[in-house]
Design a protein that fits this description.
31 helices, two-stranded antiparallel ribbon, mainly alpha, 610 residues, disordered N terminus, elongated
Length: 610
């Protein structure tokens, strides 16, 4: 009997009942059926024959793995041959059907009519893609082992016979399967094409790479990528896909190593376009690695590439986010020199960079550029410009931008109000700041934060409104707003200006009870207010309880000299020197002026000593 496998360079098993004459043969002709006299019909055309002996009865459904098939559609089929495992190496790695065909009848007629008379079975492939036998014809009949080994390796590699040999059609199949997220099927066609000497087009290869990477098959994708490089089928998109995948799997350093290897080759460097550079910058931007992004920027410039809008947007946004405002300004300036129009994200970021660098005029120009090009600045950009103008004391411009912000539909938040209050304080318009604060406090839509309270406490400090400052401090504590050391310092400073030492001491003791550690500004302010309030003992007690500090001793000594406490000042001076602290020039001058008159020699000695 004859077992025929169709739709490939035809494979057949011929069993004539005489086990010694049982033979396996194959032919490169496709879609042929073999009668009993199979060898007579193919005299001179059969490319190879291999003998095997003996007979075995096997259930194909139980032994389907010997063919490499995933499954059989018929439950059981009986074969009579020996050395079944020999067929494993030449079987197909695709699903198939078994049909009973009568000798001499048309295909499928015996199945339909149920009148099969001979033990002939036709193995019909369920799809037209089969194991390619393009190299089989080159094998001689005296090379059965090499043929079986090569065929077995091809099966294990997922290589199939391709009835269709049109490269464009096969490339479209790869493209379609890749888009349908079927990477294994697309990969099988790709391998079969390359095995057959066919060349997939670039679009299909890139789509296959993308599908493999989406499914986490990086190792296979890298093999395809290397094959594409060898075939010179790579583009910038190819490199971008691989570099992103390598960065996700191995980190930025792995991507940088691969990129460095690529640009080290002159041939590959010429194929790396600006898209690849943008990909590398985006990889480092995602990791907030501004240094590596700057390095790619330098390589891009050195290789004669010109950045695009995307390039500079990535650079500017990355540098601003990482606090590298000067680099962001340099990138933006280069973008303008190259005649590129920045996008909204780029301008929002550069406004922040200009504002932090104190270049309020540049920030204002960018804001005006956005308005001229019918771009709507966001709330954050407006706040940045207001804050920058406020720090420069440009009160009028700050409120103009505030009005513009409202006209754009942005509601002012706590940051906006704090920037306006700071603008008034910088312009020494403290009373107006207090009036604005009262307006803000009456707005139910605004939640006052610690920054607004500290800003208005500064206004109270400058005006010496100790009672208002204490009132605001109690309000902060009642509202459960975290009161910082800076807040207490402002209140004590207001008491100093108003010459209210006892109130300042009460605030200080309250501060200590709240477990806030006083800093040098707290102690200096408290020391001055105690001296001017003639609270000498309290001043000395503060010196004893605080850590030794030259500035604090200088303030105490100078204040006591000015208030006539010469002896106490000298005592503190000697204590200061014993602690190893150095007096400043003003303290030395006051000590020299209050020394007793001695001889010129003693006086000179004292001058050298002090």
């Amino acid at each position: 009997m004859v077992h025929v496998i169709k739709n490939l360079p035809t494979l057949a098993v011929y069993l004539d009942g005489n086990e010694r004459n049982n033979r396996f043969c194959y032919s490169r002709r496709a879609k042929l059926r073999y009668p009993r006299e199979i060898f007579a019909l193919y005299t001179g055309k059969v490319k190879g024959c291999f003998s095997f002996n003996g007979s075995n009865l096997v259930y194909v459904s139980e032994k389907c793995t010997m063919f490499g098939f995933a499954q059989l559609k018929l439950p059981a089929v009986l074969f009579s041959f020996k050395e079944v495992n020999n067929l494993c190496s030449i079987a197909l790695n695709v699903p198939y059907e078994l049909e009973s065909v009568s000798d001499g009848e048309s295909e499928g007629s015996d199945v339909q009519n149920g009148n099969s008379t001979n033990d002939v079975y036709n193995l019909e492939l369920s799809r037209k893609d089969c194991l390619t036998n393009s190299n089989i014809g080159n094998l001689a009949t005296n090379q059965p082992s090499s043929f079986l080994e090569e065929t077995k390796n091809s099966v294990e590699d997922g290589i199939m016979y391709l009835e269709e040999t049109n490269e464009e059609v096969l490339s479209k199949r790869i493209l379609k399967l890749s888009r349908q997220n079927k990477p294994k099927s697309a990969l099988a066609i790709y391998k079969s094409m390359t095995f057959s000497g066919l060349k997939p087009d670039l679009h299909a290869c890139n789509s296959l790479l993308s599908s493999l990477l989406r499914n986490g098959m990086l190792d296979i994708a890298l093999k395809i990528f290397n094959s594409m490089k060898a075939s010179e089928l790579t583009t910038g998109h190819t490199y971008s896909l691989i570099l992103k995948a390598v960065a996700d799997a191995g980190g930025c350093d792995a991507a940088m190593n691969m990129f460095s290897e690529l640009i080290s080759s002159k041939n590959l460097r010429e194929k790396i376009d600006i898209v690849v550079y943008n990909t590398m910058i985006s990889i480092f931007a995602k990791a907030n690695s501004w240094y590596q992004a700057q390095k790619i920027w330098n390589i891009l410039t050195d290789n004669g590439q010109v950045g695009t809008i995307v390039t500079y947007r990535l650079l500017v946004c990355t540098f601003v986010r990482c606090g590298q405002n000067e680099l962001a300004i340099d990138a933006y300036s280069e973008m303008i020199r190259n005649g590129l129009s920045p996008e909204g994200d780029t301008m929002h970021a550069i406004i922040g960079a200009y504002s932090r660098e104190g270049k309020y005029d540049c920030a204002l120009n960018v804001l005006q550029y956005m308005l001229d090009n019918e771009l709507k600045p966001n709330e954050r950009a407006c706040n940045a410009v207001i804050n920058s103008l406020g720090k420069a004391g440009k009160v009028k411009l700050s409120f103009e931008v505030y009005e513009l912000m409202k006209s754009l539909g942005h509601a002012p938040d706590a940051y906006t109000w704090n920037s306006l209050l700071n603008a008034l304080n910088r312009a020494n318009r403290y009373s107006e700041a207090l009036q604005l604060f009262e307006r803000i406090r009456n707005l139910q839509s605004v939640i006052l934060n610690v920054h607004i309270y500290n800003t208005i406490l500064t206004s109270c400090h400058r005006l010496g409104l100790w009672d208002k400052a204490v009132q605001i401090l109690w309000q902060m504590e009642a509202s459960e707003i975290p009161v910082s050391t800076a807040s207490y310092n402002q209140v004590i400073g207001a008491c100093e200006v108003a010459r209210r030492p006892k109130v300042a001491l009460q605030v200080y003791y309250r501060m200590v009870r709240q477990k806030h550690s006083p800093d040098i500004f707290t102690l200096l302010s408290l020391m001055r207010v105690c001296i001017w309030g003639s609270l000498w003992n309290e001043a000395v007690e503060i010196l004893k309880l605080s850590e030794p500090n030259g500035s604090l001793y200088n303030a105490a000594i100078q204040g006591m000299f000015l208030t006539g406490k010469i002896d106490l000042a000298k005592k503190l001076y000697m204590e200061m020197r014993e602690r190893g602290l150095q007096p400043d020039g003003k303290t030395r001058a006051m000590m020299l002026q209050n020394l007793p008159k001695h001889s010129m020699r003693n006086r000179r000695r004292n001058v050298q000593k002090y």
